[in-house]
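tool=predict chain=A
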Amino acid sequence: MNILVIGGGGREHALAWKLSRSPKAQKVFVAPGNGGTALDVNLTNIPFNGVTDIAALAEFALANKVELTWWAPRRPWLQAWWTNSAAAACASSAPHGPPRSLKARKRLPRTS
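tool=predict ok
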């Protein structure tokens, strides 16, 4: 299975690294990736310029038979991904339809 992780932070690096260890993973692409993902021989960084490059990234995913896509919780990227017709054909780790704010859900409830 080919996998695409969209994002360039430590969370994306850790996820891509773990996914690359799966026996089911053939290739793991990271867009744009970072210095750490560039050094890992099991990961392939893909140039990505943000929201304006979503169509090219979706075409890349289709051309490389990406079966699973995961992205960082950054709303502009998510909105652009969901509204792109080529991206709609890619399997995705988010629920169907435009995403809500994922980052806000990371807060833990306070107990008094």
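The helical segments are 10-20, 35-39, 54-63, 75-83. The longest helix spans residues 10-20.
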